[in-house]
Amino acid sequence: MRQARILLFLLTAALFSHAQTNRGYYRYPAIHGDTIVFTSEGDLWTVGVQGGPAHRLTSHPAQETRAAFSPDGKIIAYSADYEGPQEVYTMPAEGGLPVRRTFEGGSANVAGWTPDGKVLYTTTHYSTLPNAQLVAVDMNNRTSVVPLSQAAQGVYDSESKVLFFTRLARQPSYTKRYEGGTAENIWRFDGVNEAAPLTSDYAGTSCNPMYWNGRIYFLSDRDGTMNIWSMDRNGHGLRQHTRHSGFDVKYAALSGGRIVYELGADLRLYDIGSGQDRLVPVELPSDFDGLREHWVNKPSDYLTSLHFSPSGDSIVLTARGRVFVAPVKADQGRFVDVSAHRPGRYRNGRLMPDGKSVLLLSSETGEVEIWKYAADGSGAGEQLTSGGKVLRWEAIPSPDGRYAAHQDKDHQLWLLDISAKTDKKIAVNANGDNSDPSFGSVRWSPDSRWLTFSTNTPNRFTVTMLYSVATGVATQITSDRYNSGAAAWSADGKWLYFLSDRALNTVVSAPWGARQPDPYFARPIKMYEMALRKDIVSPFEPADELHPAKPAAPQDRKGADDKAKGDEASSEGPARVPEV
After folding, report:
1. Residue 85, SS3 per DSSP
2. Which of 407, 384, 398 is nearest to 353 (CA)?
3. Cα angle 131-181-482, degrees, rounded to a multiple of 5
4. Are the CB atoms for 26 and 282 separated by under 8 Å?
5. Do residues 225 and 242 lie in contact, with contact meaning Cβ atoms separated by under 8 Å?
6. 428 beta partners
7. DSSP code of residue 384
8. Please, are residues 203 and 191 in contact by the beta-carbon 8 Å criterion?
9. pLDDT digits over 470-479, tens only?
10. What phi and psi values does residue 18 have, to the nearest 5 degrees?
11. Would you state the pLDDT for residue 453?
12. Looking at residues 188-205, what average pLDDT do you find?
């Protein structure tokens, strides 16, 4: 019985030890025969098509990417930034000393090989415009430019020497299902006649051409997600080969009827003949240095937000997903880790007006929601919002602590009743973008009755809005003829101060001068003030007969004597300076 238990224990331990794999993030795969080369941790690795432990080829701190096997499989070409700029290098497929092949001082990205053993790469070095071109370099570092003005990827038919290439480089926004004017598309070039488009039937992305047995295999998002498709040499006979949804297929390479490609963090292999598509179970025998714990010498370098308490005696710090409350003076309190030992990642902590609790964003539920935690780190947090579907931005509490204004990535501005835990949508910025919060300069009035914020009008100008908490009405208070934003309230709530670009004073003397065809506005942005009542005068206006200056507050006799002595000393002028 005892021996049976020991055997069962050993079998269980062996099973779990086999299941424990070192998983990495795998990119830019290429294949030749039964060997796959890929990038992980910024280095090149090789692994068999069946998966298993990978073998590291490079160990330099620089990044090595976009590897490609030579036609005979003996050499690997890749891009690396060993000396600073990204250049093309080659090395033996089994590993060895790299050899630099390009000296352009720019971004040289390996695209593959020509049938006669030259490295095909993409560069902007030879173009007069910022367009990617294909260039071939041989093993003697001699280059020849492919006569195409725009080509970012390419593959040759080894028999006919016809080049199938991607026109236009990847558009920089990485927008899914992009159908704009810079969408990648596939063309054919025989070296003699004008290049012809092959994927003009589709307005979206078609890229990464690969050639095998008379068909062109490529990546396209025709079904909503980037998948592997194929067509004949004339762009007809379209077929879909993979049907992934969610993660896009990225950077595919073909050899011997098999396509290796990225999907998420993994590598997959598609067999054209059988139609089989499977995961390549790669294990990375690495020390995973990037995952080791390390000491932070300057925590301030990792701060993502810092806010003072309303009383000014403490600050709320957010760094590396945690929120801390610290006293301004070390002898006036303790340093509190508000989010210690709690699940989730935390952002944008702000103290409530009473100084007893902190509003913050937390991912505890799986979505980013607004929570309230005790400022002294005690007790459990209280969730204030729910149902989040997109990223929320920080919550700004009102001075009376009743409300909090916040916004989300759907360009919506919300008013949260903290005690009732109800959320009300008060504005939508239909003309904003997703790069930053759509509503700028969200500020509360001192009496918590009004909220000011900036938004975009249909003509794309920024205007300042005023929202009444009592009536729920938002009013535009600046013109859409100028950009106006960054509004702030005066301490008494009677004035709004804001920035606007309406100071249109050109420094060009004449719009149609010899070398001055256009006006030039050197300093168009200035600070402005807006009165929120009719019966008030700007504190910056000089006194007049209708608005005389207020009498100075009376001083005690000692203060007056001290002031007189100071005035007498100042009338004597500066101290004598010795000549040099």
Report:
1. coil
2. 398
3. 100
4. yes
5. no
6. 412
7. -
8. no
9. 999 999 999 9
10. -70, -35
11. 95
12. 95
| Strands laid side by side in the 215-220 sheet | 206-212, 215-220, 227-232, 239-240
Query: How does pLDDT run across 27-41, given as a tens digit for each residue?
Result: 999 999 999 999 999
Determine the average pLDDT of the residues in 332-360.
Answer: 90
For residue 228, the Cα-to-chain-centroid distance in whole angstroms is 27
CB 102 within 8 A of CB 109: no
Q: What is the DSSP string of 385-436?
A: -----S-B---EE-TTSSEEEEEBTTSEEEEEETTTTEEEEEEE-TT--SSS
Q: Is 27 helix (H, G, I), strand (E, B) or coil?
A: strand
**How many residues are listed for the chain in this entry?**
580
| Cα distances (Å, whole numbers) of residue 363 to 341, 381, 382, 419, 463 | 14, 12, 13, 21, 32
Q: Report the helix count and the strand count for the chain, using DSSP H and E.
A: 2, 45
Q: What is the mean predicted confidence (pLDDT) over 386-412?
A: 93
DSSP string for residues in 135-184: EEE-TT--EEE-S-SS-SEEEE-TTT--EEEEESPPPTT--TT--STT--
Q: Which residues pair with 283 in a beta bridge?
A: 53
- Quick check: 58 and 44 in contact, CB under 8 A? yes
Which helix (H) or strand (E) covers residue 567, if one does?
Answer: helix 557-571
Q: Mean of the pLDDT values across residues 373-388?
A: 91
Which tokens sit at 46? Answer: 């090789």
pLDDT, residue 33, reads: 96
DSSP per-residue string spanning 10-22: HHHHHHHHHH---
Name which of 277, 255, 254 is nearest 266 in CA terms.
277
Q: Give the N- to C-terminal CA distance of the chain in Å, as an integer.
A: 104
CB 112 within 8 A of CB 155: yes
Please give the pLDDT value at position 510.
66
**Average confidence (pLDDT) over 548-562:** 64
- Beta bridge pairs of residue 196: 188
Q: Find the mean pLDDT for residues 423-437.
A: 82
**Is 568 in a helix, a strand, or coil?**
helix
- Rounded distance between C-alpha atoms, residue 34 and residue 228, angstroms: 21
Helix, coil or strand: residue 90: strand
Give the number of C-alpha atoms closer than 13 A to the C-alpha of residue 430, restricted to the C-beta side: 3
Question: Are 37 and 54 in contact, with CB atoms under 8 Å apart?
Answer: no
**Cα 537 to the chain's mean position, in Å?**
46
Mean pLDDT of the chain: 88
Give the number of C-alpha atoms closer than 13 A to the C-alpha of residue 418, restricted to the C-beta side: 23
For residue 82, the cross-strand partners are: none
Please determine, for residue 14, whether its predicted confidence score (pLDDT) is greater than 60.
no
Burial of 16 (0-12, 13-18, 19+ CB in 10 A): exposed
Please name the amino acid found at residue 217: Y
Q: How many whole angstroms separate alpha carbon 228 and alpha carbon 217?
A: 7
Contact indicator for 488, 482 with CB cutoff of 8 Å = no
Predicted TM-score (pTM) of the model is 0.68
Percent helix, strand, coil in the chain (nearest 5)?
5, 40, 55
